[in-house]
């Protein structure tokens, strides 16, 4: 699982794809999808059979069997001339990466699917393609079967270029011509499609020149928050082309009334710092979920937590994190950080910090949230903040930085917005020089202590959080927004 947003894709290792020598499952499944897309766009009668290797060579039979069984045994539905929708929506996103764009894309296509199913004469059909990031087999295998079948079905839809609306749902570096190895979006460049739309976001106070240029080549760009509307326009993006479409959260899946808490001792959590009395009944558990990068403010989290609490406080901090251009030895990184810092161990010993070691399958994620008393993420900047919204859907009180994407949904009534000490500069990487928020260590200390000591208020905010998620970010509501936008576009086409 990749629990976090995934704005910057993992750059695939440059490796040529040869039909006879599959280096890895990734290359192979990308190949299958590439072949499929090339055929579905260029040819009328695709034939995949010649390209299929023996399924027995695969260590991951589920992915293959699903793809192959479908490709082999399910005939393409014959389209009736009269009911053939005049338009096609080709949604290109990192469907198989499991990141933030990926989960967004899945919810959008299920919304579109629900809509199409209800129409007598749908005005468009839907086609999808994986693009913009690497595939993650664990993620694909963790998806419900009906989602996988839906994906394979949409993947088979044929589109004529000149009646297709292409949605490029990824970071602009993946758009045509891509800056790294990925299927370009739109696949054959601009000018050949009815309309081309970008869906993207960013986590700092601006968008770089190259990305703005790429956004301006699109007919429209959909961003998730008012923060992005402002920062994109301020960076030079055409204000006439910007639309806001928020990100939905699956409220049936993330439903606290449906799940029992995960046993935190069972998920390979290792105690990396401090000592803990696991048997204590009323232990207060803070949960944080993020990709291991400086942007996420894990340093701020460690400082605040370790300064405020000791082992005598009956608290625990659980971190579910995954690698981002780094190795996976998070325990050591935490210990090193603390050793090199000016933090002093309290007489009562450090408060316990755990790193969740196991891969948590998507289906178990709600139970992980259930096992916590509060969610905390002192991030410096977020595109949307998917784990924050999931925690809110699970009625957890959340403490998170009151800047960037999350300002779209944080209020004093539904959360503990963390104020920040002004802005700081991004110090490395391609976005060096941009600004983001510098969350306050002191204020985070106060809020963490506060959420523990006022459980009634915390509970109330958690309940309000779910109410607000249902009111604004349910897949139905966001799906309707997308349909309305698409309809508006289609009405103005000819
Ligand atoms: C789209 O292209 C097809 C041929 O590929 C052509 O028959 C059709 O008239 C075109 N439609 C439009 C609206 O240009
Ligand atoms: C959070 O930020 C918004 C502006 O984006 C501001 O109106 C609000 O007062 C802030 N809330 C807190 C608790 O600081």
From TrEMBL:
Name listed for the protein in its UniProt record: Mannosylfructose-phosphate synthase
Chain segments annotated as transmembrane: 21-43
Keyword Transferase among UniProt keywords: yes
Organism expressing this protein natively: Handroanthus impetiginosus
Presence of the UniProt keyword Ubl conjugation in the record: no
A Pfam family per the record: Glyco_trans_1_4
Keywords, ordered alphabetically: Glycosyltransferase, Membrane, Transferase, Transmembrane, Transmembrane helix
GO MF terms held by the record: mannosylfructose-phosphate synthase activity
Signal sequence extent: none
First-tier enzyme category under EC: transferase
EC number, UniProt record: 2.4.1.246
